[in-house]
Design goal:
2 helices; 7 strands; alpha/beta; Hypothetical Protein Aq_1857, Chain: A; 4-stranded mixed beta sheet; 3-stranded mixed beta sheet
């Protein structure tokens, strides 16, 4: 199961509100990593797709595609802002030297 930090929940809600998408959720997808490691996509979605798993934490829904669900077990979605980098990241789990991260919204 994927968890999401309170900071990531707050940033996701803020982002969704700015986009006029209150009540929507985040959708995590798995893409071919091209030999490095799996790549994950993070998008917004109103509803889950038929084969998505749904995780809800602190009122935020996260839809996880079937292929990503197993790969993301034990991982945590966080939001980082260290002055030079801002965005959502995945932490934990088994990471390659490239490390999975995504910052497509935020």
């Amino acid at each position: 199961m994927v968890t999401i930090t309170s900071q990531a929940v707050d940033k996701a809600r803020e982002f969704l509100a700015k986009e006029g998408k209150d009540g929507w959720g985040l959708r995590l997808s798995l893409y071919d990593g091209g030999g490095c490691s799996p790549s994950y996509g993070l998008d917004i979605a109103e509803n889950p797709q038929d084969d998505d798993s749904v995780v809800e934490q602190n009122g935020l829904k996260v839809f996880i595609d079937k292929e990503a669900s197993t790969a993301l077990t034990g991982m945590e979605i966080d939001y980082v802002d260290d002055g030079s980098v801002q965005g959502f990241v995945l932490k934990g789990g088994e990471q390659s030297s490239c490390g999975p991260s995504c910052s497509s919204c935020g």
